[in-house]
Structures are given as C-alpha cells and as structure tokens.
Design goal:
The chain is mainly alpha-helical. Helix 1 runs antiparallel to helix 2, helix 7 (152-178) crosses helix 8 and helix 10 packs parallel to helix 14 (318-349). 74% of the residues lie in helices and 0% in strands. The longest helix is centred in the last third of the chain and has 32 residues, at 318-349.
Length: 492
C-alpha cells in the first residue's frame, strides 16, 4: 500500500523517537538491558503501525510473525543476563538476522520457502531496499504540494539535496575539528558556535532515525500476503551418474582407510599412540581442526552433488543414496574422532572457549549431516533443509546461552587443576562476569597454588578486584544480571 503524507509523517516522527531512544540507551554505554528494551520498541512500533494502517496481510501472518518474535526477544534479553563478549556478539547477530527474516515475512516471503542461500541474500538485499525507501520517504516529506510531487526533475533535485547536505555537513564538522583556523572560519561564516562535543549524539540520532524511517516505509508500502511458492528453475548443468559414482566411490574408499587408522590408534588407547613415539595429547591436538574442515567441505560436496546430479522423476538413483549414505556414515565416525581428540586435549590442558565451541560445532554439524541425508533419501525440497538448518542454528545459540560457557569453563578447570597446582588463573582472569561465582570459590582453596606458584586465594582476589573496578558505576541502561551478581560477590 502507498502511505499518505500524514501516515508517512507519523512514521517519521516514530523513527525520530527511536533515534533519540537509541542515543539514550546506547551512546557511550555497555550493552545490557537496553538492547531488549530497544528491540521491544521496534517490534511494538511494527505491530502498532500494522494495526493502525489496517494491513490486510497481518491477520493471516500474525501467528508466524509472533513465532519469529519469540527467539528475537530471547536473544535480545540474553544481553541483560550473560556478560560473555562472545555470547553478546552472537546474540546481537542472531537477533538482527531474525529481524531481517521477520521483515522478509512482512513483505511476502514465507520462511518455509527459503533456500540456503536466500538467508544471505536477505541479509544483503533488504538493508539496501531500506536505504532506497528512506531516501524516497525523505523526498516525499520534503516535497510539499502536488506540483513538486508530479515533476520528476524536482523530485530528483530534492533527493540529491537530501543525500548531499548531510554528507557535506558531516565533512565540514570533521574538517573543522582537524584544523583550528578552518573551524574558526566556518564558525564565523555561519555566525554560530559549533559544539563538537555533542556531534556524536546528533549524528547517531539522525542516522538511526533515517534507518527506521526507511525500514518502516519499505515494510508498510510493500507488505503483502505470502505468495504461492514458486518452483525453482532447473539449471542447465547436470552432474552425470558416472561422474558422481566415481567421485563418491573414491571419497568413500579414502575416508574408510582414514577411519580404519582412527579405530586402530585413536580409539585403541594411549599405548597404541605412545608406541609410535607420540604423546597422547600431541596426537589428539593434531588434526581435529582439519577433520572439521574436511566435514564442512564434504557437506558442500554432497549438497552440490545432490542438487545437480541426474535424477529420476520419483527421486534419486539407488546407487547415489547408498554411496551418499556410506559417506555420511564415515563422516560421522570422523566427527566422533574429532570430538574425541579434542576431549583428550581438554583432559590434558583444560577447557577454553575455542575448544568448547569446536566441540559444540562438531555435534551440531553431525546433526546437519543426518538432516541432509534425510532430505536426500526422501527427495525433499531444499527449503526443507534451509528451514530446519535455521531451527538448528537457533537451537545451537539457545544451548550456548543456557550452558553459560564462561562459568562452565571456569568450573571444569578449577575442578580439574586447582588441587594439582596446575590451574591457569591468568586465563580465568580473561573470562567475563559470568565466571565470577566459580572464581570466587577459589577463596576457599587455602594452601593451594596456581601453575605460576602463587596462592590461589590471592590470585582470585586480584581477579575479583579487577572485575569490580570494571563493572562499578554502570548506568541502568547497562544493567546485566551476571555483572550485578559479580558486584555482590566481589570483596574488597
């Protein structure tokens, strides 16, 4: 639908409000409860305008949009609960990514119609459409009167001014800051005092006001019911049965040899490895990254083969199902091998965020392989794989938030190394406030030393003191449950 001038003006006022709220919640502050408040306002603004404008699609897609809103709110809320920088980054990415998919549903793209690469396309294409809609909406707001609207040249001039003036103003301020003489000249020309200290506030208010103006304008002017799914056009390229058989057969043979060696040595125990002149930890450390890379490349190979190989009307040929099934089975054994290697290394040297992440990714990737083979065996469309892959991605990050990795790592390392005098407290000091409750337990380890020969309670007090200095005097916008708990536990 086409927004009237008054409707567009209302959207612009709401967008300016959101720009001001962004400045109040985020400028110069650590992220915390502010993020879920802001995302809540964005969703509330959408639902308000959808109801106010009487969008016809809204009643038919309301349930699916609300289902998408649940994980969006969850990931946004976790910034007020978990302090881990790693989790905070991916929670923001997950929330923004799902917001883009949410927006895609508004403009008529059903989630169940997505294919794998459509997610990337949405992430790139929609923001560009928002930008174009924002420029068009600004031009419409500025052009008062029908004659200005009807004359194409006038509209182009207005759009040019809308783009040019903020950019010129921005560079004038930067150049004035860079040179005192130029700044004095500019101040004299305009006969007003330029306050550069507040420039950041003004810039981000205008920037985000423009972003949300473009977003809302595009969504409400292009909203429509979900279209009937279109069958993807078949490419002219086909991967022949013979070529596929040779490729998959060769890979099955290679992987089978590799798996045999894994069973003989890695799964046979420490004596089988040390007899070859390797330590068990060194053997375990060498190769788990390469195994994960092999698995990812194999996934791309099976997916591409399944997509382009010659098919019967009823589905894939039997040989392709068998060879692909064998390959997936061998890859799963390799995933078990990679997981085991990493577990052995953790037993020798302890947990880190990267090691725990790789282990989790191995499990997730194994489930993706089973999902891919199920799609292949049942001859299901690519949209099936894309939809459930997205669900697994959401599940992966929900699991990580529930796990609380920094606290988990601190707990396991303390249990494993504290009494043995091998605990690396320097690494513990790099963990977030999520780990503070576990680190505080070290105060009870009187008489025990860390790997550097220092008293564990003394090292723990130093860590707690540094965390207290970092998290003290935070504004309410930065409230975070883990940081709040850390302040309570920290002692002077």
């Amino acid at each position: 639908m086409k927004l009237s001038y008054k409707q567009l003006l209302l959207v612009a006022v709401a967008s300016l409000f959101l720009g001001v709220v962004w400045d109040v919640l985020f400028f110069g502050k650590m992220p915390g409860i502010s993020f879920v408040i802001y995302v809540g306002l964005l969703l509330a603004g959408f639902y308000f305008f959808a109801d106010f404008l009487g969008l016809s699609f809204y009643k038919t897609t309301s349930r699916s949009l609300k289902l998408l809103a649940l994980p969006i709110v969850f990931f946004s809320l976790m910034l007020a609960i978990r302090d881990s920088n790693f989790l905070s980054f991916w929670n923001v990415v997950a929330a923004l990514g799902l917001l883009l998919i949410f927006a895609g549903s508004v403009v008529g793209r059903s989630l169940k119609d997505y294919r794998l690469f459509d997610f990337l396309k949405t992430a790139v294409e929609l923001p560009l459409r928002y930008l174009a809609a924002g420029l068009g909406s600004l031009a419409q707001l500025i052009s008062i009167g029908k004659r200005a609207k009807d004359r194409e040249s006038t509209a182009q001039i207005l759009k040019g001014l809308v783009v040019t003036l903020p950019i010129v103003f921005f560079f004038i301020i930067l150049l004035s800051s860079a040179d005192l003489v130029f700044g004095r000249l500019v101040s004299g020309l305009f006969s007003w005092q330029m306050d550069f200290s507040n420039f950041g506030h003004y810039f981000w208010v205008i920037f985000f006001a423009f972003i949300w103006l473009g977003t809302y304008s595009y969504l409400f002017q292009n909203s429509s019911p979900a279209p009937v799914p279109q069958v993807a056009k078949e490419t002219g390229y086909r991967f022949g049965k013979i070529e596929a058989g040779i490729l998959l057969g060769a890979l099955n043979f290679l992987f089978a040899v590799f798996v045999f060696i894994q069973i003989k040595y890695l799964f046979a125990g420490q004596q089988a490895i040390t007899g070859l002149g390797y330590t068990y930890a060194d053997y375990a450390h060498k190769g788990f990254g390469e195994l994960v890379a092999v698995a990812i490349l194999s996934f791309a190979l099976i997916f591409g083969s399944e997509k382009y190989i010659e098919k019967r009307p009823a589905g894939h040929y039997g040989f392709f199902k068998v060879l692909s099934g064998c390959l997936v089975g061998l890859l799963l054994i390799m995933m078990v091998s990679a997981f085991t290697r990493l577990s052995l290394y953790e037993h020798a040297y302890g947990f880190t965020l990267l090691r725990l992440l790789v282990q989790s990714f191995i499990v997730w990737l194994s489930v993706i392989f089973l999902l891919l083979y199920y799609k292949l065996w049942k001859f299901l469309p690519e949209s099936f794989l894309a939809f459930w892959s997205l669900m697994l991605v959401i599940g992966f990050f929900v699991f990580w938030n529930a796990l609380n990795p920094d606290a988990f790592i601190a707990k396991k390392n303390i249990e494993q190394f504290a009494k043995a005098g091998l605990l690396d407290t320097k690494y513990l000091s790099t963990l977030s406030a999520d780990a503070i409750p576990e680190i505080a337990k070290l105060l009870q380890y009187e008489g025990y030393l860390n790997k550097y020969g220092r008293s564990l309670p003394e090292a723990a007090r130093e860590i707690l003191k540094s965390k207290k200095e970092r998290y003290s005097k935070q504004p309410w916008q930065s409230f975070n449950l883990s940081r709040n708990k850390a302040e309570v536990l920290v002692v002077d």
